Amino acid sequence: MKITISVIKADIGSIGGHIKPSNLLLETVKNYVSEYGKELLKDFYIGFTGDDIAILMTHTHGKGNEAVHKLAWDAFKAGTIVAKNQGLYGAGQDLLKDSFSGNVKGMGPAVAELEFEERPNEPFLFFAADKTEPGAYNLPLYLTFTDPMYCAGLLLSSEMSKGFKFTVMDVSYTRGDKVIDLKTPEEIYELASLLRDNERFVVESVYSRATGDQAVAVSTTRLHNIAGKYTGKDDPIMLVRVQKQFPATGEVLAPYSIGHLVGGFMRGSHTGPLMPVKLNSTISYFDGPPVVSCAAFCVQNGKLTEPVDAFDHPFWEYVRDQISKKAIEIRRQGFSGPAMLPYSELEYGGIVEIMNRLEKKFRVRKK
Ligand code: 13P
Ligand code: 13P
Ligand code: MG
Ligand code: MG
After folding, report:
1. 281 versus 174: which is more confidently predicted?
2. Residue 156 beta carbon below 6 angstroms from any ligand 1 atom
3. Which of 26, 159, 224, 232 is the most buried (most CB within 10 A)?
């Protein structure tokens, strides 16, 4: 059976700053999808990571389906009314357009979708990150899909050793989708040259070269490209199919033990280590650190199992301790150098105003 998994995610308000959505807000979104998605969907799951609510839906209508996208949009609209009534912070934050126009892409919410013929066993992973950017997945994806130091399957599986195709988007280009396809292992240096720049080049999808099947879908929204100003970080979501022709679950999770430094953290303007956290985790230290959660599922005829929390294991407690130390270490240098993002990426307007004022006061010394 051919099914589509669509995840649509938005920040529509949270308690106590940018920490987490309220229970009433989550219930409202859930009840809306449950009631109005009866005919349309095979199944759905609602979760949150930090202040972002994700609606994961299974159906048979293909990617970019208007009715599916509208259902999520309307659920977030219904949630926004509740968020406003409760006085939640940033109510409706990611709903950047007034009326729905066919597809939530370019309207604020993040989208990741996979369409495939179900295998007899169909495990997949759903990642959601908060206080960071879509390029946060670049390094983990690179290591899982190209590096046998992290992914044993590249050596041990005859299908995986045929390599993968990456589609990478230049998210600085705003007049359309500017993408490039690169084949691994032949083009790993070209791929690395792009992926080193998480702000600009983002892995959008990965395909198996053995079967042509899509393994990965990442959301590539750039909120400030839509709104023309900072409205929150583009907290990214990702779907990854696993096992058989794809990496094993553990090979996809392994690179998250690094706690690599990503853009985001306080006011979307800093650098911090990406911490793998449990499902439905909140945000704390310096509006961070940047976090990523992972729900593992199996699906059959579009019906989802309950999620398994992939980062809820004693091993990750140790990793989280290490990453907390890394977060404190970089915070010790405050605004200085790489601890704060470069001027071109600074998400808040205040510093731009300061720089404009100072520019007028600069003087060039006569020789
Ligand atoms: P199975 O042999 O149980 O499928 O496990 C293989 C595997 O992926 C272990 O990492
Ligand atoms: P969000 O993008 O998660 O709403 O965070 C905004 C922010 O500025 C946190 O400091
Ligand atoms: Mg927020
Ligand atoms: Mg968020």
Report:
1. 281
2. no
3. 232
